[in-house]
User: Which sequence fits this backbone?
């Protein structure tokens, strides 16, 4: 199974908008994901400054951006990638 | 305790005072005495005269009909010459090369209000590099009184031995750490809870320690290389506060930037790591938290957060250079952003003020 990399932005904007709570995803993933999903904190990825980008907090899952991220949206993205969408 | 730096004369004057009684009364007496005494010492007034004035103007305790506070004043100039005046505090302890050095004292009698003639000790110590001078309140020397094996408390002699011990164990021990060690030992003697105020003031003569803190992206791209070079070539502690700034510098240096996920859950964004940089943190939230901590705690226990680590590094340094990028982060000034964040350069100015005033650091700000 291919690895899935979840990068959670911890820059000022994302932090204030609640990225810290997304870290809990570590404990909430289904057990089949335990070995394939790697969760990383990153410093500001700069998306908050782009005019037409959506709202913070931002999470990248295998490079795909999840705007206005929360536990649900990140989990959905992980599922999508697992299915190969 | 009061500290005063006379920049033009290269003098630093400190006073440790212990007021009669406890709580608010003792606090008022000691604060008044320390403030007045440092300023009198700064103006090089006659000791007899000012001890007399202090004793006359201190407010009297209604129960004891007496206004009284001990004081030890150290007036040190840039050559290391320390004029020490001691009144009723435990004797100051001089540690040189890990050994206790005797201080030659001269006895002077002064008139101290209702108490009449009292003895004050004057001495001049030519301090050498590496010397440490510890001044404590009687809460330290009398700590543990009545405990097993300490009928009279810890006593000056044992305190001096303790000081010599920790200094020879750790040659690089800073004044701050040493003062902390002394007070913590006094608290241990008391079984974890002090029955009297235990205060320690330590003077350490050393070459100034330098720190460079870079925060915020420069106003223009072309200065990116400049801030990177400054950081790379700096001799001393290197700190970066700001995610974007860290990224710019890591890219220019060609070194990876790692963020620790382990430290999450402390209310502040986590610290990161760049090889060759001592500390990398988020910017504006961490610096705001640092300002709060500097304003309130000071000598308190350091928090185990990026802001706590930052405070620890800054308080261990003497000369701090802040390179402040002036590019405005538009996202922070967006009406949808849930909190108002400070403009970085105002925050830097306030940090400079508190570090200089409360902690006697030298701080330079450079805007890029």
Assistant:
């Amino acid at each position: 199974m291919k690895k899935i990399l979840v990068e959670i932005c911890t820059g000022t904007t994302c932090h204030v908008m609640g990225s810290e709570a997304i870290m809990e995803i570590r404990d909430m993933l289904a057990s089949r994901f335990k070995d394939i999903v790697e969760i990383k904190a990153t410093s500001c990825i700069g998306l908050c400054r782009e005019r037409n980008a959506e709202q913070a907090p931002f999470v990248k899952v295998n490079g795909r951006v999840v705007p206005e991220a929360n536990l649900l949206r990140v989990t959905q993205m992980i599922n999508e990638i697992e299915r190969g969408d | 305790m009061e500290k005063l730096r006379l920049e033009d004369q290269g003098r630093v004057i400190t006073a440790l005072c212990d007021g009669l009684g406890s709580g608010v009364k003792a606090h008022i007496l000691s604060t008044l005495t320390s403030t007045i005494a440092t300023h009198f010492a700064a103006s090089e007034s006659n000791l007899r005269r000012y001890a007399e004035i202090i004793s006359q103007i201190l407010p009297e305790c209604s129960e004891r009909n007496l206004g009284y506070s001990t004081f030890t004043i150290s007036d040190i100039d840039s050559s290391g010459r320390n004029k020490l005046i001691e009144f009723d505090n435990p004797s100051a302890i001089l540690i040189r090369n890990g050994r206790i050095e005797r201080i030659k004292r001269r006895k002077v009698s002064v008139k101290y209000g209702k108490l009449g003639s009292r003895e004050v000790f004057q001495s001049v110590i030519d301090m050498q590099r590496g010397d440490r001078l510890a001044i404590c309140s009687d809460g330290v020397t009398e700590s543990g009184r009545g405990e097993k094996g300490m009928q009279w408390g810890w006593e000056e002699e044992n305190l001096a031995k303790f000081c010599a011990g920790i200094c020879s164990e750790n040659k690089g021990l800073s004044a701050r750490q040493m003062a902390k060690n002394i007070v913590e030992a006094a608290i241990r003697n008391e079984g974890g809870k002090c029955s009297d105020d235990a205060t320690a003031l330590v003077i350490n003569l050393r070459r100034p320690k330098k720190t460079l803190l870079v925060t915020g992206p420069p106003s223009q791209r072309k200065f990116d290389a400049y801030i990177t070079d400054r950081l790379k070539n700096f001799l001393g502690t290197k700190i970066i506060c700001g995610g974007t700034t860290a990224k710019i510098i890591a890219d220019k240096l060609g070194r990876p930037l790692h963020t620790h996920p382990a430290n999450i859950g402390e209310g502040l964004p986590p610290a990161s790591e760049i090889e060759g940089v001592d500390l990398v943190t988020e910017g504006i939230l961490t610096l705001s938290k640092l300002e709060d901590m500097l304003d309130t705690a000071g000598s308190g226990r350091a928090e185990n957060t990026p802001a706590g680590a930052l405070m620890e590094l800054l308080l261990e340094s003497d000369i701090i250079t802040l390179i402040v990028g002036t590019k405005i982060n538009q996202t922070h000034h967006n009406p949808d952003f849930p909190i108002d964040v400070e403009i970085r350069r105002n925050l830097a100015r306030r940090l400079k003020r508190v570090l200089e005033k409360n902690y006697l650091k030298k701080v330079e700000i450079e805007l890029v």
Observations:
- Chain B touches chain A at residues 243-244, 246-247, 257, 259-261, 264-265, 267-270, 272, 280, 282-285, 329-332, 336-339, 341 (CB under 8 Å).
- DSSP finds ten helices and 17 strands in chain B.
- Chain B has two domains: 2-205, 210-367.
- The mean pLDDT of chain B is 89.
